[in-house]
Amino acid sequence: MFKKFTLVLLCALFFQFESKAQFSVEEDSLYTSGFVGASSSDFIDLFAHTYINNPSKTHPDTIVWERLINNLPSANWTSAVCDINLCHGTSVSTSEFILDTNSRRELSFHFYPTMDKGLGKMVVRFSYKSNPSSYIDVVINCQGYALNINTLKKANFTLYPNPANDQISITSKVANNGAFKIVNLIGETVLSGDFENGQPIDISKLSKGIYCITVSNGSSVSSSKLVIE
User: Fold this and answer.
1) Strand 167-172 relative to strand 200-202: parallel, antiparallel, unpaired?
2) What does the DSSP assignment read for 62-90?
3) pLDDT by residue (tens digit) across 212-227?
4) To the nearest 5 percent, what fractions of the chain are helix, strand and coil?
5) CA-based radius of gyration for the chain
6) How far apart are CA 59 and CA 103, in angstroms?
7) pLDDT band at 72 (very low <50, low <70, confident <90, very high)
8) d(Cα 213, Cα 39) in Å, to the nearest integer?
9) 109-138 pLDDT, tens per residue?
10) CA distances from 76 to 84, 117, 118 (A)
11) Residues 6+ positions from 142 with CB-CB distance below 8 Å
């Protein structure tokens, strides 16, 4: 009788363990980056995503998420957590959803940067509603660059060649000479000086990448994208 009871107890513990197999998140450290919106009317969505898995084959589980950290560089930024049902804005710090048996569902984390460059960070904890001590923390970092080169207006100068390698030349449409400044995507000035129309400018010390070049001629200032290969 004792052996039979022991066997029944072991079987019950086995099925309980199988039904409560730990859920998993495929990537718990995420990163996203991009340009910051130039004005409040620019909608910029920088997001990262991962997947949550429920290996249980017997029943669904209720998962609770809680936003432990929501650090944004300024009040012009907002963020959102999108679980398997809905997207929740900055004002929502916790919610829950049902994770079906033997399922794999997408989670995404969004930053909406406007006007101010900087670093954003969220830490979101996922846990069983029935057992909060069993949890996984997902860390999401975001870098917002200062320059949105896709919104630059048509420049009043010609840049040649572009893409470039070692040299460029500037031909202004409003003056024979002026000043230039080359800025990288995080807002740092990497090269500046004066130019004369059509004369070569040495850029051989600059790394490959995308830059913004600004040209000024008296009261006229305009910018363009520069690609260095």
Assistant:
1) antiparallel
2) EEEEEEEEEE-SSTT-EEEEE-SS-EEET
3) 888 887 667 788 888 8
4) 10, 55, 35
5) 27
6) 11
7) very high
8) 20
9) 999 998 888 899 999 999 999 999 999 999
10) 27, 10, 11
11) 31, 32, 33, 46, 48, 111, 113, 119, 120, 121
